[in-house]
Amino acid sequence: MKKKKLGFLTLASTSLTAIPVIAASCNNKKDEKKNYDQLLKLTIDSEIKKTKEAKDVLKTDISISEIKDVKIEIKSLVPSNKIKTKLIITLTVTEKDGKSLEVIKELDGFKEPSSTKTPETPGTNADTPGTNTETPANNKKNVANENFVNAVHITKSAKSSEFFNNIQENATIYYDFGTNSFFDKEYVKGDNEANKNRVELFHLEDFVPAFGVNVVHPTEADKNINKVTLVKDGNNYSLKFKFGQYDAKTKKTTIFDEVYTTKAEAFEFRTKAELDTKIDTLTLSYPDVDNVFDNQATQDKVKLSDENEKMVIKSFDILKGQGKVKVSFVITTQIGAETLESKIKEVTIEGFKVDNFESQLVGVTLNYPDKQNVTIENIDVTKFTLSKDDAPFELTENATATYKKVENSENKYKGTISVEATFAKNEQNVVKTYEISGFKTEAFNLQTYVDSFKSVTLDPSINKSETSTNSITKDSFSLGEFDKKAVNVEITNGKINEANTSEYILTLTFTDLVNEGVELLTKEFTITGFKAGEEIKHYSNEKVAEFAKAQKLFIVDPVKIEENLENFEKAIKSKKPLIKVKNNKITYADSTITGDVIGLSLNPDLGVISLTHGGKNNGTYVKPYPRVKNNGGIRIIKDESGTFKLQFNLILDDHATVDDVVYEQILFNINK
User: Same structural domain for residues 517 and 605?
Assistant: First the structure.
């Protein structure tokens, strides 16, 4: 059985002897999504590969295959830190329903860099002049700095407009070298939710800086790396900063003296508050309204009092027979690629012509005699009567009314039903739907329903006698028909019967939809006849075990993780080739290797902050594999293919026994 790979992250489970692989089930929701990693095809002209280094490639140089109903954009281009001829492309994929995700692709074979040296001092384009020695190295650095400064562009979006509207001159902006963008908040390691909610304000366009290039606060350089200040002049915005250069060997950043200011860009926008104020002053009209019947009005003819505003109609309701149309609308403004909307305003346009027959039916209600003694099943549609203003209503001459039940509208437990009435006169039809309540109800007892419920079915593609219960999940079963007007039924849990591993136990949860205040009830179903499963194991932390098996224990940044290459190589050769995971920090067990592991974080959904050094019941849930004497941690491995990965075992529920299943999580391959 082959290992299952998910992009840059692969997790397998192996035994100490046979080394089998445990792959995730293919019957999950993730597998139903399109495999964009396979569907997306990137191409680039061979001449560009010959003449350009990976760092010089532009977004416009890359062609992307089209996918129906999917919008694909290049978010960033980042050269590999280890293989200089490789380019890492991050794509934003937006589906028809508005959901978006990121896909990372690679292109290799670009021109070899002529030099890997980094510039030492800033050059021209600075606010404060510097003394430059005109050497080839300095000249190259000058060009690099100019390219960086010229590549900075404002990000125009609804969220960024809110920021710029409220922010003051000299505000601090934060640079994220992982995305080559500037944000309103600092990057927080391990906090994916906080990072996702940051607002991008500026970005580098068609340019990727060399490894280790940082920007620094222009006046407060100490400990202010990756921070810049905002320059604001009316609706014109730019950034001011110094340059810094990080040295991977010394772990220090050299900060240069020159202060740079990017080219000011205009960003004119209207805020939501301005739109809300404006819409309060607007009115709607309908051309030639006096000569248009209300039932013939169409929303495309509605006019806004200010033709310079863009209107979007949210709802258009004809009040038939009343000569009125109720319209809900917003006004919008475009900010970059986004559309910002005002609040919704509702206006009633009056003065339409009224059809006499239809107007006569305004306010007419539908009744049923002695309905409190009639059940829903016994309704006779010919017995419905009409009334208006609490008095019987008679149709005019030559007018008729017919009634029919709306399909699936009956609720015998609540005594309600929907009825469609068709009024006809001289080949003119008016259709109205009535919701009628007050019929005799039928009692519902949830416990009685649960006791009699047996409708659970195994997926017909599964052969029980040949399928181990270890391969079965609650998703392997489906529910049959149940009375959706009375109860909601869900399969909420599934587990192997520890007393007999050839049996699988399902838990169903029932919710009463008729009677308020009734507690949920559950019922277990034991499904027999499966192939006996393996021994049931319980772990010191079941969620850690669940996430390990589901490939969710760690979150890996596929770009930043490669920055650990030198430290990983050093760790593997040391006496402690391990990492520690404690208090939301991932560090090296070898004390000679300082700093945290870059681009690797504990999954926040685990609900724990430690894995290796938290003590019994408080964070020691794994052990390294292979063992390193009595040291705790997770083992760093490099295999023959050049793949770096983590290997570990889980600790069982006695907090002492180490399971014999080995899990490995792939980090990156130096040859890819």
Answer: no
At residue 411, the pLDDT reads: 96
In this structure, the answer to whether residues 555 and 624 fall within a common structural domain is yes
Please tell me whether residues 170 and 231 are part of one structural domain. yes
Q: What is the pLDDT of residue 195?
A: 85
Instruction: Please report the DSSP string for 510-540 in residue order.
Output: EEESSSTTPPPEEEEEEE--PBP-PPP--BS
Of the residues 487, 502, 527, the one at which a domain ends: 527
Residue 16 lies in a domain: no
Exposed (0-12), middle (13-18) or buried (19+): which is 137, by Cβ within 10 Å? middle
Residues 6+ apart with CB under 8 A from 241: 175, 215, 216, 217, 218, 227, 228, 229, 259, 260
Neighbours of 555 (CB within 10 A): 15
Please answer whether residues 594 and 585 qualify as being in contact, where contact means their C-beta atoms are separated by less than 8 angstroms.
no
Residue 617 lies in a domain: yes
Residue of 253, 257, 185, 202 whose CA lies nearest to 225: 253
> Where is 43: in which H helix or E strand?
strand 42-44
Number of domains in the chain: 5
The alpha carbon of residue 121 and the mean position of all alpha carbons in its chain are separated, in whole angstroms, by 42
Are 164 and 256 in the same domain?
yes
Last residue of a domain, one of 238, 266, 294: 266
User: How many CB atoms are closer than 10 A to CB 653?
Assistant: 13
Q: Do 624 and 649 fall within a single domain?
A: yes
Query: Running DSSP on this structure, what letter comes out for residue 309?
Result: S
In a domain, 63, yes or no: no
The reported pTM is: 0.44
d(CA 324, CA 326): 7
Instruction: Name the residue range of residue 640's domain.
Output: 542-669
- For tokens 């974080």, the residue is 601
Tell me: do 262 and 180 sit in the same domain: yes
Q: Is residue 341 part of a domain?
A: yes
Provide the 3-class DSSP secondary structure of residue 503: coil
Distance CA 278, CA 311 (A): 12
Q: pLDDT, tens digit, for every residue of 167-205?
A: 888 899 999 987 889 999 998 877 778 888 899 999 998
Interatomic CA distance for residues 533 and 308, integer angstroms = 71
Q: Alpha-carbon distance 537 to 241, whole Å? A: 57
Tell me, what's the pLDDT at 318? Answer: 92
Contacts 24+ apart (CB under 8 A), 285-291: 285/349, 286/325, 286/349, 286/351, 286/352, 289/349, 289/351, 289/352, 290/351, 290/352, 290/353, 291/353
207 and 140 in a common domain = yes
pLDDT at 120: 36
Q: Are residues 169 and 254 in the same domain?
A: yes
Indicate whether 656 pLDDT > 70: yes
Residues 511/514/518/524 CA torsion (nearest 10 deg): -30
